[in-house]
Amino acid sequence: MKHNKLHDFLLVFPGYLIYTVFMIVPLGMTMFYSFTNWDGISKKFKMIGFKNFVRLFSDAQFYNALKVTLIITVITVLIYNVLGVFLAVALNRKNRVCAFTKSAVFVPTVLSSVVVAFIWSYIMQTDGGVINTLLALVGIAPVNFYKTPLDTIVMISVIISWNGLGLFLVIYVATLNTIPPELMEAAEVDGANGFQRFFRITLPLMMPGITINSILSIAGGLKQYDHVKVITGGGPGGATQTITLMSVEKAFEYNRRGYSSAIILVLFVLIVIVSAVQLSITKRREVKY
Amino acid sequence: MSMKEKRMIKAWLRGFFTVLFGLIYLFPLYIAVVNSFKPYTEIVKSPLTLTLHPTFENFAEAFRSSNIVSLYGTSILITFSSVAMLVLISSTAAYVIIRRNNGICKFLYAFALIGIMVPPVVTLVPSIKMLSMLHLMYKPSGLLMFYGGAYFSTTIFLYTGFINSIPESLDESAYIDGANTITIFFRIIFPLLKPCTATAIILMGMWIWNDFLNPLYILGSTAGRTITTGIYNAIGAYTSKWNLVFANVILASLPIVILYLCMQKQFMNGLTAGAVKG
């Protein structure tokens, strides 16, 4: 086959042009700004070397944001993947009951994070919230979900998980359907019990799904912005601020674009490292049959 | 009790708890729906129950204050055009990259994957500068370009994986019949990419429709708001008037939930068809 070079060019060029101008160049600019003291407005700025990063690693606000981000990531990743696998296995039957519950879990996925955050901030209110009204019915004293920043972060993590679980469930159900039923039958004939079948057959064969889902959930947790922004705005006093929230605040409210770029760059490096480690762990465990 | 009876009871219990779990999962939505029909004073008194005297006043008020129709217009315009553009630019590029297995294409493939780990927020600040230099700031077309750059890597990754599984003999026989590259792609290959395109449309559609941070800063308020930023703005104005909050929440979500319920099968299959290979 002889290929028309012009046609090849026409098919490839538009995508790469947009990608270069609106991804690669801005990525380079973020890296560049992180070494400057640019305020986002003035034309003049200075190269200040690693000063932003030095300041960052002695900034208590940054360490708190890092802690908050990691707590949210750990909780959401655990819920998405442990509850996700459990539900996929439990609901993987062809009947109306399972179909209903699968759809029920997926509905919140199509809702916007802003909407979800508003509904839940009403439910979790200390005075007159739904949870506390329910607790009062069975005679339990009201719970303050905003008592400490940690309580608030845990609550927000659960809300995020409620919002996103459906996507992970659907991917796990699809992976489960790629496992040939003969394998299960053979194991059953050989006398393997439910637990053995799950840990020796189902789980190893679900590894491709686990790989996709852990990547999606880790990246999603680390860049969390929406729910925290609506529920607490990062407060009180920045105590529930995530890295993304802190970076956006520094860029647009304090006009410290250089410092903001350094913060967001650290987040990017964190995502790359965690994903690479995670990939090397789960990829190794993917099995062929 | 016989074995058969025991098994039946077990099946019933399993079904009961499955439905119970589903209902509990939907409980927050039930709260939003029932309270959107109550006046404020009734929400405070009894937040859990259905109301005996439903009122539509909340919806009327929400409709008046948040300009919901124009919010939908902006969201539909941005989501539709961004997804269509991403499907077009990444499927065409992926096709050439996979089929011409030469040095340039190998480089282009690796180059495209740089962005896959970059969350859009990492490039937000410089993109705003870039967009203002190109006079695209505070315009839907600017947000469209931003999404094109932000999600190109993800969609090209989906398409390259899928095109790999389509036999090249199809291209060859069309070539012998005299078709050129562009014709071969749009007439023969693109229709075969349907499962992958469905995945791309649903995944990108959901991300872009629900995006909050990027339209907040790139569109601002002058070019019209999307559903997410518009609702955030509208509700921010009356924080604890929960009756109005819930009416807004329902207006913003009902169409998308109905769309999902009508196309449930396509949604579920589409999400996974191009991503999880059997």
Description of the structure:
The complex is a heterodimer of chains A (289) and B (278). The relative contact order of chain A is 0.14. The longest helix of chain A is centred in the first third of the chain and has 32 residues, at 60-91. Chain A contains 13 helices and no strands. The mean pLDDT of chain A is 87. Chain A has a single domain (58-285), classed as MetI-like (MetI-like fold), CATH 1.10.3720.10. Chain A has helices spanning 5-33, 51-56, 60-91, 96-106, 113-123, 130-137, 149-177, 181-189, 194-205, 207-222, 226-231, 243-252, 257-285. The radius of gyration of chain A is 24 Å and the shape is globular. Chain A has 289 residues and is mainly alpha-helical. Chain B is mostly helical and 278 residues long. Chain B has a domain at 67-237: MetI-like fold. Chain B is built from 14 helices and no strands. Chain B has helices at residues 3-35, 40-45, 57-66, 68-99, 103-113, 124-133, 140-163, 169-176, 181-192, 194-210, 213-218, 227-236, 242-262, 264-273. Chain B is flat and about 75 Å long. The model of chain B has no long low-confidence stretch (mean pLDDT 85). The chains are: A mainly alpha (289), B mainly alpha (278). Chains A and B meet through helix 1, helix 4, helix 5, helix 6 and helix 7 of A and helix 1, helix 4, helix 5, helix 6 and helix 7 of B.
